[in-house]
C-alpha cells in the first residue's frame, strides 16, 4: 500500500528556517511565514523535511490513494523558493499574471526572492488556494 512521504511532523518551523544557508532566503522565509500565518489563520507546521504547511485537508482519489496535505505552503529550497498553490484553482493563472518574476511547475510556483514579486498577490494566492481546497475537500 502507498505511504505518503510528506506528512506533518513535530519539527520546529523556526529551527528549519534558521537552518537555511542563505541569509537572504532565511529572511524571505520568515517574511513568508508571517504572510502565510496572517492570511491563512493557521499555525505553520513542518510537512516532511522541508515544506512549511498551513492547515490541512484529507484527500481520497478514485484509485483508493488517500492522505493528508497542507492547504497551502512554501519551502525555501537551495535553488529557489517554492510556493505551493492549488494547480486547479481558477484564480491561480490570473493572479500569477500579476505576481512578478516567477516560474511554475505542476503545483509549485518558483521565485528567486520576495523582492521579485508582489506580496499582495502572494496573499491573494494563499487565500484563493485555501478557499478552493476547502471547497474541493470539505471535512
Explain what the structure shows.
The structure is a single chain. The chain is α+β, with helices and mostly antiparallel strands and 139 residues long. It has one domain: Aspartate Aminotransferase, domain 1 (Alpha-Beta Complex). It is built from four helices and eight strands. It has helices at residues 13-18, 23-40, 92-99, 119-136, and strands at residues 44-47, 51-54, 57-60, 66-69, 72-76, 81-84, 103-104, 108-111. The strands form two sheets. Strands 1-2-5-6-8-7 form a six-stranded antiparallel β-sheet. It has a two-stranded antiparallel ribbon with strand order 3-4. Helix 2 packs across helix 4 and helix 3 (92-99) runs antiparallel to helix 4 (119-136). The longest helix is centred in the first third of the chain and has 18 residues, at 23-40.
Residue stretches low in confidence (pLDDT < 50, at least 5 long) are: none
- In terms of structural class, how would the helical and strand content be classed? alpha+beta
Proportion of strand residues: 15-25%
Q: What's the CATH topology label?
A: Aspartate Aminotransferase, domain 1
Query: What distance separates the N and C termini?
Result: 23 Å
For the secondary structure, the number of strands is 8
Q: Tell me the count of domains.
A: 1
Task: Kindly provide the radius of gyration, computed on alpha-carbon positions and rounded to a whole number of angstroms.
Answer: 15 Å
Number of helices: 4
Report helical residue fraction: 25-40%
Q: State the order of secondary-structure elements, H for helix, E for strand.
A: HHEEEEEEHEEH
Query: Do you know the CATH architecture?
Result: Alpha-Beta Complex
CATH class: Alpha Beta
What is the general shape? globular
**What oligomeric assembly is this protein in?**
single chain
Strand order of the largest sheet: 1-2-5-6-8-7
Query: What is the residue-averaged pLDDT?
Result: 94
Largest sheet: 6 strands, antiparallel
